[in-house]
Amino acid sequence: MPPDFGVLPPCPSPRNHPFRAAGWLLTVGAGLASLLLILAILSAIPIVNLLALGTMLEAEGRVVRSGRLRDGIPFAGALPRLGGIVIGTWLWLLLIRLVTQAAADATLIAPAGPSARIWALLRAGTILLVGVHLLGALFSGGRFSAFFRPVRSGRRLVAAIRAGTAWGTATAALTRVVDAIEPGKLFSLGLRGFVGTFLWLLVPTILFSALRDTTKPGQVLVSLLGAILLGAVLAWVPFLQARFAAEQRLAVFRDLGAVRELWRRAPIVMLLALTILYGLSLPLYLFKIVATPRDAVLFLTPIFVLTIYPARLVVGWATHRAQARPARRWLLLRWPVTAILLPLLALYVFLLFFTPAIDAFGRRALFDHHALLIPTPF
User: Fold this and answer.
1) Is 119 exposed, middle or buried (0-12, 13-18, 19+ CB in 10 A)?
2) Which are the contacts of 19, defined by CB distance < 8 A and separation ≥ 6?
3) Which of 146, 256, 321, 348 has the fewest CB atoms inside 10 Å of its own CB, making it the most exposed?
């Protein structure tokens, strides 16, 4: 059976087990940071970034179904183990770094001296022993305690190698993890979510980007029409995408009437979600004033993920709230909220119009739509 990555283990009581509670917080925090870093790395790789989008949509869909923001943490059950692996590995690599630095200092002071030779041997031995120990700790399951029991982990690894079961055990464990993550399903979800959203945005964005010469009235009118259509699409596409994430059917993207009904039931929370989503996405265009070198994309992508990911969860929460309401809100409430939404969308589209002037990629920036498509700076 694949491991349960969906349920976060409860935190031990800080009163009865303070050290266990502190360890839980430390490992879960490190695991969450590592998970966000993994999503950022995936987002920085073309085509593979659809896997990151699928992960976000899966998390958003869970929030839509349950209404709990905490359900939007993907693979929550694996966070303590992942955090333990990250912290344990980092501590042992820190030891290698310290020994390596000492060896480099000894070589700098006396390159041919006995101290430099001794430190060189210590460095090689440390790298070898730590490498074997880390391998043994991972083979033992990657628990945080395993990184501080080198003898026990080493014995397990050696016993498995002698019995000829090491490769089979490692392969079976990796297979269980892959089965639990379901990368094929996440990639398919990201691809379908991208296609369904992009088709809604394509025509309005093309019309919106048509303006080349302000002295030509035809281009001005086409661009104005595109702005109106784009504003309307931006109002409902996030919720179409959220419903798709929950139901995982492409046909959901055609069900505009359902989103309009959701607006009638919960206009305030949906307005709040749209404000957060687009308000957080606008500053991301500032990071694209200069074309980002390929080797520097990884440093910017975490900012995009940390900005867009929580906003998607808010949209999912708002969608759940709207679906859970049994009746429509009064017209006297819906109309003022709609009156607030329209100028906000107009302001967003107006600011979006100027992004090609500051974006290194020019008019292509209008097609990026970081809030709804791939959260990357390219």
Assistant:
1) buried
2) none
3) 256
